[in-house]
Design a protein that fits this description.
The relative contact order is 0.10. The protein has 22 helices and 23 strands. The protein is elongated and about 130 Å long. The strands form seven sheets. Strands 2, 3, 4, 5, 10, 18 and 19 form a seven-stranded mixed sheet that branches. Strands 12-11-23-22-21 form a five-stranded antiparallel sheet, with helices on both faces. A three-stranded antiparallel sheet has the order 1-8-9. Its main location: membrane.
Length: 672
């Protein structure tokens, strides 16, 4: 096979000439383009540079959304976002023309509180910066003088390089009102604590964007993608009721401020709830804090004390101040737990309501002596009288009949040891602070029956108690009932959630009557608002370590007695007095609050007032009055006293609270 010869093309002279001509033409074109660019730069470079700069800095920017408001149940704004402006200085643009420097500096000094030396230093040290924040978070009114000067192009053509960056600042018109319930926000609209945190995604919107560009005719065009504002959260709180609660909490603390702490107790807290919906109408604890200045500790500590704190200590102090006592702190409830014990016994048939008990001042359980609040004993009592007298001895005897299994089951039924799932962050899980049927001993059963040796939160107890007096219906407590869009349209309605029925209507009616008698004639008498039927139960819980004189006192009550419309729960943790074991402090605070709240809620008096009773008695003829008194005395069953239970607790040497019948001895522990 023959190999074919490879034919090689020659680079002819003619081809070389063509290539040379093409090269020369390209070079001439490049030289011409370079000359034109140089000419443009020399003649109009500054103009085009400013145009490009203008597009970059002013015509492409973020449009911030407005975080939604938080309003009370009647629409009163309690948290909102106000538009504010940051003064931005474009140092490079101002420095680009010496004619701009002095007029712009003069205008800035005239309109804003800024030192000339600081401004000149910024222009010098940040000469190439397009973004220098000269002032932050000014109101619309505060920038208007400069805006007028800047827009007056005829008289002020050389004021250049200043623009206003928009953002929103969270404001709380009522400052400290409902501080631990509302919460606050930090940078970038991040919610901390309260409704601000739990509903943060609902309250937040989406930023918009404004784009600027040059069209084919070199005209500036703008495209705007508007911001989407956040939704408004409608809370169940009533600002007026909240104000009443906080006013009286502060009065209590000012009245009992006897030491350097400046407080009337370690913590004073109140919940007011609608028992038929679970809606929280007011919730407060003291000390509180300023939502507009949440990191400010000056109301509680001196400047020297704050400065002496390490960063860790300060943060721990702030977190303790911010936390919501009503959902984040647990405590032994004391005698406010007694109605739950009675309800469990009645509901299961372990108790009939006809039992009587002999209180001799103590019970000995598994070798441990556990005392009643009245050391000498209450004597013979019915279940009703045991609740009225707040008798530990009788409750322990009831617990024997109820038994460990039933008692532990009903603690769970009433919600103790479980989260209520209230729509607030930070609710504590108290399951590890409760006994189960497997872990509960006879001593635990006895002490749990009157509210010691297990822990609850205020919200747990208020929700469970509401079920005792509303027919047995347990509603999930909540603080928000509606979500609105930025235009006021309803996005979502949050209806009451009925989770379960804890007891029957018949049991509820019995327990409600016992609680009514407790306020009428028993340990809760000092909580009664004149002219209103009310029910309730006092509580005095000895804190650990025992025998140190530290107590948590409380009162939980409702009105009206026949068909409750409102529940109030008052807790005073370690009142600032020598003898802390006085639940009368809680009943008196509850009375002060309810005296204003009930008329405000259009709940009308349903009983004769003390003044009316006194006037009627004075109007009766003397003979008739004597006859009536004799008749009443004759109708009193043998062995029963007409004296109110709270005044028939014992002699003065027993050192009892004259209003509640409880021991005033700070070291008189019920445990031995």
């Amino acid at each position: 096979m023959k190999n074919k010869a490879v034919k090689v093309k020659k680079f002819t002279r003619r081809m070389q000439k063509k290539l040379a001509v093409l090269f020369i033409m390209i070079m001439l074109a490049l030289i011409g383009l370079a000359m034109r660019i140089t000419q443009i730069h020399a003649q109009n470079g500054e103009k085009y540079a400013k145009q490009v700069l203008s597009q970059q800095e002013y015509d492409s920017r973020t449009l911030p959304y407005k975080r939604g408001d938080i309003v009370d149940r009647k629409g009163t704004v309690i948290a909102t976002s106000e538009k504010v402006y940051n003064v931005i200085v474009d140092c490079k643009l101002i420095n680009s023309d010496e004619d701009y420097v002095e007029p712009t500096i003069a205008a800035l000094i005239k309109c804003f509180d800024v030192e000339e030396a600081v401004l000149r230093e910024a222009l010098a040290t940040r000469a190439d910066s397009h973004y220098y924040v000269m002032k932050k978070q000014l109101s619309y009114e505060e920038i208007q003088d400069f805006v007028v000067l800047m827009n007056d192009k005829e008289n002020n053509p050389d004021i250049k390089g200043v623009w206003f960056e928009e953002e929103y600042l969270r404001k709380y018109p009522y400052s400290t009102l409902a501080s631990d319930l509302i919460g606050f926000t930090a940078k970038d609209n991040v919610g901390y604590w309260g409704i601000e945190e739990y509903y943060s995604e609902t309250l937040n919107g989406t930023n918009g964007r404004e784009y600027g560009y040059l069209n084919d005719d070199s005209n500036l065009e703008r495209t705007i993608k508007p911001a989407t504002d956040g939704n408004t959260v409608v809370s169940t709180i009533d600002v007026n009721i909240q104000n009443i609660v906080e006013k009286h909490i502060k009065i209590f603390n000012e009245t009992h401020n006897f030491d350097e702490s400046g407080l009337g107790s370690k913590n004073t807290a109140v919940i007011i709830m609608d028992p038929d919906t679970g809606e929280i109408l007011a919730e407060a604890s003291y000390p509180d804090f300023n939502l507009n200045e949440p990191y400010d500790l000056s109301s509680l500590y001196t400047e020297e004390e704050v400065n002496a704190m390490s960063s860790e200590t300060k943060m721990e102090t702030l977190n303790a101040l911010w936390r919501n006592y009503c959902i984040s702190d647990t405590f032994e409830p004391g005698s406010t737990a007694k109605p739950f014990t009675v309800a469990a016994g009645l509901e299961t048939g372990k108790l009939t309501g006809n039992e009587t008990y002999v209180c001799d001042g103590s019970e000995t359980v598994s070798g441990s002596k556990i005392r009643c609040v009245k050391r000498t004993g209450h004597g013979l009592e019915t279940i009703e009288q045991a609740i009225m007298n707040s008798c530990n001895d009788a409750l322990m005897q009831m617990s024997y009949a109820i038994g460990i299994d039933t008692f532990a089951k009903y603690q769970s039924v009433f919600g103790f040891g479980k989260k209520t799932n209230v729509d607030l962050p930070g609710e504590v899980n108290a399951a590890n602070l409760m006994y189960t049927a497997d872990t509960m001993t006879a001593v635990d059963l006895a002490t749990n029956s009157f509210g010691q040796n297990f822990n609850v939160t205020m919200t747990q107890l208020a929700a469970g108690f509401s079920s005792l007096i509303n027919g047995g219906y347990y509603f999930q407590p909540h603080v928000v009932n509606k979500i609105l869009d930025a235009n006021g349209g309803t996005v979502k309605t949050i209806n009451p959630v009925l989770q379960k029925q804890t007891i029957s209507l018949a049991t509820s009616e019995k327990v409600k009557h016992y609680l009514y008698m407790t306020v009428q004639e028993g340990t809760g008498k000092s909580a009664k608002v004149d002219g209103y039927s009310m029910g309730g139960k006092t509580g005095t819980a000895e804190k650990t370590p025992r025998g140190q004189g530290n107590y948590l006192v409380s009162f939980i009550g409702f009105a009206p007695a026949d068909k409750p419309e409102v529940v109030i729960y008052v807790v005073i943790d370690e009142p600032n007095i020598e003898n802390q074991a006085q639940s009368s402090m809680a009943t008196n605070l509850a009375k002060d609050i309810m005296t204003e709240v009930l008329p405000y809620m259009n709940i009308f008096p349903d009983q004769e007032t003390a003044a009316e009773a006194e006037a009627a008695e004075a109007a009766e003829p003397a003979a008739g009055g004597t006859e009536a008194a004799t008749e009443t005395q004759a109708e009193t069953p043998a062995g029963e006293s007409e004296t109110p239970a709270s005044q028939n607790q014992g002699s003065a040497e027993e050192n009892l609270d004259p209003e509640t019948g409880e021991s005033l001895d700070p070291n008189a522990s019920i445990f031995e």
